[in-house]
TrEMBL record:
UniProt organism field: Heracleum sosnowskyi
Protein name per the record: Tyrosine decarboxylase
Modified residues (N6-(pyridoxal phosphate)lysine): 317
Region (Disordered) residue spans: 1-20
Record has Lyase as a keyword: yes
Domain of life: Eukaryota
Bias-annotated ranges (Polar residues): 1-18
Source species taxonomy: Eukaryota, Viridiplantae, Streptophyta, Embryophyta, Tracheophyta
Length: 507
């Protein structure tokens, strides 16, 4: 008994430190907001692409964690001097690489609130508001996109907020796999075939590997410039017929609205007609361009989605909602649930047993999940449909402007038609005297990209389309305006001029 009393006294005298004292949290929180506000105020002054060398941070940080506490002021000073130089500034208005990863005041504040609550909403009972708000905002967003009612909770389908498109594709692929194997037998997994185009994001191939699809049964169907790199329905059907004749089982098609390389849009109506003949699950990946379809003038690109089984887009790309936030809608939630659910005793509860609630743990890979719906709810309410449409239209308008600048300079060409807010261009062969070989032209454009990026003034990325090296100019950063686009074009022109002269002198 005495030992228990001693233990009680020891514990009372050594109570754990309070790491969440409200007033100190308030003070440090203000410091952090001020730090971020200052960062956004001067972000365009930093080199857009980090200029550090590999291993730089290990050379300037201690080898071991500190034994004694350090103040937030000291830590933020190190962020300024040591971390920021190693950041590629995705929020710079001069960032035109890859695709945008937009932020907004509403998105950040919603993320902050979600982090502050720090709930783990794996099931309804774990935090009812987290689940029910997600149901509401995914239905709101689905209605903004004019998705068929069959994709909404109100129509028997439903939406879920995943981390990224990679997760959305994997979850739907696993659901399709298991549904098919229940019909054909589990020992037929080696016969299942997945289809996409050679322009489909690499997430599809990665998901197929994880899901146990035989690598020999992954079909990346060739596209061509003549069709603007769309997936051809006839080629798809030919591939399916060939597989059927060889005893294989067509399983899954990933069609894309806004491919990574060129923002090509696959013909959904024709593709889904082919797929349904052979009972193929159709997933539509609209990671970047899907957000634009809240605008009536872009909604046409989703025509045919009514015949798909699942649809996803990344709100963190072009919808002012911070990373990560991938919106996935499915027509048949039970297909996901049958593949992804687990029900251990320690998670059992009356609400789940009644089948009257949604347990999102059964709609995703992980058990734990963040309260992502808060930040999407903040964005939808803070800006409204009207302002969100104008935000997207503003970027499309700037892309049209940039496209016009390229067209006016006879040294350059737009390689594929612009559909949204990205322009694919290059120095054209006729501008490089004595360098008519395609490989040489590609090399000049590669040097242009590296030269521009090394300057730190802007950041662009590249792709290869039909053997042609292309520079991708993707507009979409929250802080970008028309002046940044004009200045970016001047940077491109200046560096191109120097390279063209060098090429002429070396011929």
């Amino acid at each position: 008994m005495g030992s228990i009393e001693n233990l009680t006294q020891n514990l009372a005298s050594r109570s754990p430190m309070n790491t969440l004292e409200p007033e100190e949290f308030r003070r440090q929180g203000h410091l952090m907001i001020d730090f971020l506000a200052d960062y956004y105020g001067k972000v365009e002054n930093y080199p857009v692409r980090s200029q550090v060398s590999p291993g730089y941070l290990g050379e300037i940080l201690p080898e071991s964690a500190p034994y004694n506490p350090e103040s937030l002021e000291t830590i933020l000073q190190d962020v300024q001097t040591k971390i920021i130089p190693g950041i590629t500034h995705w929020q710079s208005p001069n960032f035109f690489a890859y695709f945008p990863c937009t932020v907004s005041t509403a998105g950040i504040l919603g993320e902050m609130l979600s982090t502050g609550f720090n709930v783990v909403g794996f099931s309804w009972i774990a935090s009812p508001a987290a689940t029910e708000l997600e149901i509401i905002v995914t239905d709101w967003f689905g209605k903004m996109l004019q998705l068929p009612k069959s994709f909404l909770f109100s129509g028997g389908g439903g939406g879920v907020l995943q981390g990224t498109t990679c997760e959305a594709i994997l979850c739907t692929l696993v659901a399709a796999r298991d549904k098919n194997l229940r019909q054909h037998g589990m020992d037929n997994i080696g016969k299942l075939v997945v289809y996409c185009s050679d322009q489909t994001h690499a997430a599809m191939q990665k998901a197929a590997k994880i899901a146990g699809i035989n690598p020999k049964n992954f079909r990346a169907i060739e596209t061509s410039k003549s069709s603007n790199f769309q997936l051809c329905p006839k080629r798809l059907e030919s591939a399916i017929l060939y597989d059927v004749q060889n005893g294989l089982i067509p399983l899954y098609l990933c069609a894309t609205v806004g491919t990574t390389s060129s923002t090509a849009v696959d013909p959904l109506t024709s593709l889904t007609e082919v797929a349904k003949k052979y009972e193929v699950w159709v997933h539509v990946d609209a990671a970047f361009a899907g957000s634009a379809c809240i605008c009536p003038e872009f909604r046409q690109y989703l025509d045919g989605v009514e015949n798909a089984d699942s649809f996803s887009l990344n709100a963190h790309k072009w919808f002012l909602t911070t990373l990560d936030c991938c919106c996935l809608w499915v027509k048949n939630p039970s297909a996901l649930i049958k593949s992804l659910s687990t029900n251990p005793e320690y998670l059992r509860n009356n609400a789940s047993e009644t089948k009257k609630v949604v347990d999102y743990k059964d709609w995703q890979i992980m058990l734990s999940r963040r309260f992502r719906a808060l930040k999407l709810w903040f964005v939808l309410r803070s800006y409204g449909v009207g302002q969100l449409r104008e935000f997207i239209r503003g970027h499309v308008g700037m892309a049209k402007y940039f496209e016009g600048l390229v067209a006016m300079d006879k040294r350059f060409e737009v390689v594929v038609p612009r559909l949204f807010s990205m322009v694919c261009f290059r120095i054209k062969p006729s501008a490089i005297i004595g360098k008519n070989d395609e490989n040489e032209v590609n090399e000049i454009n590669r040097k242009l990209l590296e030269s521009v990026n090394e300057s730190g003034r802007i950041y662009v990325s590249h792709t290869v389309l039909g053997g042609v090296y292309v520079i991708r100019f993707a507009i979409g950063a929250t802080l970008t305006d028309i002046n940044h686009v004009s200045e970016a074009w001047k940077v491109v022109q200046d560096h191109a001029g120097a390279l063209i002269i060098d090429a002429f002198m070396s011929k």
